[in-house]
Amino acid sequence: MTRPETASVIEALDRDGYVIVPDVLAGDEVAGIRAGLQTLLAATPTGRDDFEGHRTRRIYAIFAKTRLLDGPATHPLVLSVLDHYLYDYQLSAPTGIEIGPGEVAQPLHPDDGVYPIPRPHRQLVINVMWPLDAFTEANGATRIVPGSHRWGDERPEPGAPVISAEMPAGSALIYLGTLWHGGGANRTDRPRLGVVMHYAAAWLRPQENHLLAVPRDVVRGLPERLQELLGYNICPPFIGYVDGRHPRRLLR
User: Fold this and answer.
1) So what's the pLDDT on residue 252?
2) Rounded to two decimals, what is the model's pTM?
């Protein structure tokens, strides 16, 4: 049964392609995650191209490096939205993203564009951006083209209506994989930090290979639901088996 809060989120997603849900994470949880990621960021290089951002640092293989995001990744509201759109799903590309001062706007794109499937199609990817700093238009808040989740082969034209998803830390920006969006330019003198969780239908190959990125000894200590989201699961009827058995047996 769909929760009332989930129903309103789904209504907004169907209409606009995105929704901002305030106050999902408590202030002390946000502060703890932000502080914990600083050590990882200190050892993280800036991006290699215009898409990654030459003044942006991205923390990949995040579940191999910290336990701070286990809760947000399996938040009940998020999972209920994923249940509605994707049914069977897994994490695809969870990434910590720190957009540094002077960074330019990322090219607009839909996150399901990595899969060569003609549009329009059913939703294959759902994303959640967790801001750990307040997101503002000036510091690089995610830019969104409202309604673009309903497009076919169209691309944003010059002058297309683009909004900045401004929101306080602790919110959750949930958006569909068909929505055109991109990181904003940071015109301030401070970086802005967020963590994006990409989820994809379980029959698709995830962008990041978690079975290699997260050591098996680490996975053994994770909650079962997170193990499943990292690929130790079966997409019915039997996609993902190992030697004819459920992959979770590898953890025993």
Assistant:
1) 83
2) 0.96
